[in-house]
Inverse folding.
């Protein structure tokens, strides 16, 4: 997996500034010599994994290290004679990867698989041997991180390897934990590769591995990967940022004094807390510089406050906002509303009397551990007692199937083409925010920020969403293209006709890969229907009845022709007003029509109007509906059942699956108008009927 990695000494531009504070680095030369010495006494661990054992025991004091000894001996024996491009024994790579995970607090099974993660790929060791010696869990994890054979997949080997790892991650998140640590060590030791190969590996790391580290909450790996990629892909910006940090190091840093003030405030309030200054990493400093322009001393780090309980976090927040001037716009509560990657903290910013603005993060020690190590800090998610699991939110207990991962695993099954999978995977991972919307049945849907009702339809109904004809968001009818917000309640309306399909313009509003792939597949399978949905704006369909009909309004103006206004379509017994227009005709409006005020404003002559004794009348109705086959026939039938004659009907071309109908109708009795409108609303797909 890492035969291309090289000596870290050969990449000076990413050393030593990028080393995380307090993180031990393996002395690869010393470990290389230790590895070459071969097995040691059965009574103690090999010297080469002493660092790993020490880091592991710091998090798991009662861990059984004998399995690590056996895993190391198998890895060292199988890799013996293999060398990295740096000239170091190959065993130094799995040792370094395992140490990274041990420092993050990974449990023994993860470390065992990490020591063995390249054995099946690069040596004669088989999966059956791993299973027989270390069990099914270790075997599954090792298989998950093993690359597919390039001889079998050719250029598709890389995307298919990632597909394989992601599917395995859906069953055991520890697979991706090892992959991330593996990539971090390879990025640390990338220096002697050709520049073009460094850039290729860095781009894949930026587009795929860093977003995955973010989603799994492993910030300790994510931030260092970002800095390493930054140094390779943007060397000029990296050098400028490095110079800014170096210049700041020689100045008086205001953050330690601010941290002392925070300690004093909390001590006086009786709140037990640990206060630290956390320097920003390179990419973070670069982003702040882009956002704020000129940097000040307090911009190079943040104040971190660690407490024991959740309630203490809010007590700290209250003291900070009381004793300092809070910057309200910077406050975020990720404890009440955790991020989708398990992250929880309170974020705020306070202004000091000296004029500095310091960002402050408040969290419990457990939150801090999860914020740094993400899913790695949760250990084995399958070892939690059932009683505890019953009391916890399922996604917090077992993070292997959060919303984004479930979506990814679902749509990848519909993307057999490696190029499609690879491009769509990068687009999916580029969505850096998640929203939660509620279904009317009480369930929830996790969607990327900016998702539309179309995305919600495919997330909830799969291919049945092809027949979606509309949606209600928070109880209001809306178009399928409407973007959803966090916390919305969405109800998807499906057509009864199984032959219904999506319109090609849905692709303009679909954000999730699952929706886009499903829509594209349907359109490819139904080219004739697809052409129909994308045809240019067609002329409205008009149906004209056999007979007309005179208006039954009479104006107090002898021999003057009378017309009912199309803007408000008055019918008996509406209160009406008439106005003389050009040609001497009298136009009749309902008295509340906006045109009445306009007529009076321009000085039009008002004429008294009354209704004839006859009860028949003509009215124009607008009906809005979701598009479906036979809709016009069903509406016409409903009108006919009410004994109403259709004088004319106009159907406009569908827009976003919505259709507008305009009917001019001759009613035998104006009193039947409310019943007619109810009958039209009862036609499936019709959501509004009103007078024109």
């Amino acid at each position: 997996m890492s035969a291309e990695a090289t000596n870290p000494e050969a990449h000076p531009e990413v050393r030593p500034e990028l080393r995380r504070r307090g993180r031990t680095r393996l002395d690869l030369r010393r470990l290389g010599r230790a590895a070459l010495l071969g097995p040691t006494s059965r009574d103690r661990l090999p010297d080469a994994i002493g660092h790993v054992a020490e880091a592991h025991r710091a998090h798991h004091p009662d861990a059984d290290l004998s399995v690590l000894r056996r895993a190391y001996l198998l890895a060292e024996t199988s890799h013996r004679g293999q060398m990295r491009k740096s000239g170091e024994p190959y065993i130094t790579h799995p040792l370094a990867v395992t140490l990274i995970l041990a420092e993050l607090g990974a449990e023994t099974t993860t470390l065992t698989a990490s020591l063995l993660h390249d054995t099946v790929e690069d040596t004669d060791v088989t999966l059956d041997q791993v299973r027989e010696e270390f069990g099914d869990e270790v075997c599954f994890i090792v298989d998950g991180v093993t690359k597919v054979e390039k001889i079998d997949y050719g250029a598709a080997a890389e995307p298919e390897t990632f597909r394989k790892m992601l599917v395995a991650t859906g069953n055991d998140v520890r697979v991706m934990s090892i992959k991330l640590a593996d990539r971090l060590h390879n990025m640390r030791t990338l220096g002697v590769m050709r520049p073009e190969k460094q850039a290729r590996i860095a781009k894949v790391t930026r587009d795929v591995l860093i977003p995955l580290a973010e989603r799994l909450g492993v910030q300790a790996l994510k931030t260092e990967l970002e800095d390493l990629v930054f140094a390779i892909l943007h060397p000029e910006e990296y050098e400028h940022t490095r110079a800014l940090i170096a210049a700041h190091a020689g100045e008086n840093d205001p953050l330690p004094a601010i941290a002392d003030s925070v300690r004093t405030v909390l001590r006086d309030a009786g709140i037990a807390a640990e206060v630290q200054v956390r320097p920003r990493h390179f990419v973070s400093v670069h982003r702040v510089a882009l956002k704020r322009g000129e940097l000040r001393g307090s911009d190079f780090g943040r104040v971190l406050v660690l407490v024991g309980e959740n309630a203490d976090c809010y007590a700290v927040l209250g003291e900070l906002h009381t004793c300092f001037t809070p910057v309200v716009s910077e406050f975020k509560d990720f404890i009440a509303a955790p991020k989708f990657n398990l992250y929880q903290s309170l974020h705020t910013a306070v202004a000091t009397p000296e004029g500095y603005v310091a960002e402050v993060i408040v969290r419990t020690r457990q939150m801090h551990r999860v914020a740094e190590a993400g899913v790695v800090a949760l250990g084995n998610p399958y070892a939690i007692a059932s009683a505890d699991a019953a009391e916890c939110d399922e996604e917090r207990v077992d993070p292997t199937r959060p919303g984004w991962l479930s979506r990814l695993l679902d749509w990848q099954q519909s993307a057999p083409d490696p190029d499609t999978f690879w491009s769509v995977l990068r687009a999916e991972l580029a969505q850096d925010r998640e929203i939660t919307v509620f279904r009317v049945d009480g369930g929830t849907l996790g969607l990327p920020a900016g998702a539309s009702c179309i995305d919600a339809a495919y997330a909830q109904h799969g291919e049945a969403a092809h027949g979606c004809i509309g949606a209600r968001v928070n109880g209001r009818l809306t178009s399928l293209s409407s973007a959803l917000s966090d916390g919305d309640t969405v109800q998807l309306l499906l057509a009864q006709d199984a032959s219904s399909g999506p319109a090609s313009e849905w692709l303009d509003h679909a954000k999730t890969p699952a929706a886009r792939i499903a829509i594209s597949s349907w359109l490819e399978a139904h080219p004739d229907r697809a052409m129909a949905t994308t045809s240019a704006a067609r002329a409205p369909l008009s149906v004209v009845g056999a007979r007309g009909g005179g208006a039954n309004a009479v104006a107090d103006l002898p021999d003057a022709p009378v017309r009912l206004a199309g803007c408000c379509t008055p019918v008996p017994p509406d209160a009406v007003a008439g106005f003389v227009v050009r040609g001497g005709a009298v136009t009749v409006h309902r008295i509340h029509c906006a045109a009445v005020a306009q007529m009076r404003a321009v000085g039009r002559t008002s004429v008294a109007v009354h209704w004839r004794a006859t009860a028949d009348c003509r009215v124009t109705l607008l009906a809005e509906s979701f598009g479906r086959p036979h809709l016009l026939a069903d509406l016409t039938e409903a009108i006919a059942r009410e004994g109403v004659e259709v004088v004319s009907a106009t159907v406009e071309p569908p827009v976003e699956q919505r259709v507008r109908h305009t009917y001019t109708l001759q009613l035998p009795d104006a009193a039947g108008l409310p019943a007619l409108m109810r009958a039209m609303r009862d036609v499936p797909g019709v959501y509004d009927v009103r007078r024109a």
The first helix runs from residue 28 to 36.
